[in-house]
Amino acid sequence: MARNTREGTEATRLALISAARRLFVEKGYSETATPDIVAAAGVTRGALYHHFEDKRALFRAVIEQEAMAVASEIDRGAASAATPREALISGASAYFAAMAVEGRARLMLLEAPAVLGVERTAEIDRDNAEDRLLEGVSDCLGAAASADEVRALTNLLSSAFDRAVLEIERGGDPSLYEAAIARLIDGLIPRSR
């Protein structure tokens, strides 16, 4: 019986996250009301507040799930790379593809900082994809690079990736931005590594 209860509880939680994501993408965070979310999820308002403190907490869960999905795609994309540079380039391509999922760029890059704050959004990123980028930059630069240098380059590349995603979202050609990111990586990180 306890297992079924746990499974039911998790199913309810996932239904809320899924319904909320759909509505946040469709209407935006501020225009999405909790009664709409519970109706779309097919649960009670009590179930919502059993799992989440408020709409903001539910939004945070949506963003965390999105961030994990992006990190998973980056891992898959970079897994077969033979060199650290290839891993960065493949990871960038995987990032662009993962961020092309409908609504994801808006949720993660525009709404999350506005709703959750820049620091909390950065924390979610650090817990997911940023660590992969940091490791990739570190692998490319080698032991001679200081931790501060690695962090600075990681921040610059992360910002460039996010800006590229927003431009692609606005209709930019993804292949142009992938090529530009490769040139940027090659300009920041010596090819000999």
Structural class: mainly alpha
Low-confidence stretches: none
In what range is the share of β-strand residues?
under 5%
The major beta sheet can be summarized as: none
What is the gyration radius calculated from CA atoms?
19 Å
The number of domains is 2
Q: How does this structure look, described?
A:
With about 190 residues, the protein is mainly alpha-helical. The chain folds into two domains: about 1-50, Arc Repressor Mutant, subunit A (Orthogonal Bundle); about 55-190, Tetracycline Repressor, domain 2 (Orthogonal Bundle). It is about 80% helix and about 0% strand. The chain has ten helices and no strands. It has helices at about 1-25, 35-40, 45-50, 55-80, 85-100, 105-115, 120-125, 130-140, 145-170, 175-190. The longest helix is centred in the N-terminal third of the chain and has 26 residues, at about 1-25. It is elongated, with a radius of gyration of 19 Å.
How does the SSE layout of this entry go?
Layout: H1 2-27, H2 34-41, H3 45-51, H4 55-78, H5 84-99, H6 104-116, H7 118-126, H8 129-141, H9 147-169, H10 174-188
In a few lines, what is going on in this structure?
This protein is an all-alpha fold. Helices cover 80% and strands 0% of the residues. The chain has two domains: 1-52, Homeodomain-like (Arc Repressor Mutant, subunit A); 56-188, Tetracycline Repressor, domain 2 (Orthogonal Bundle).
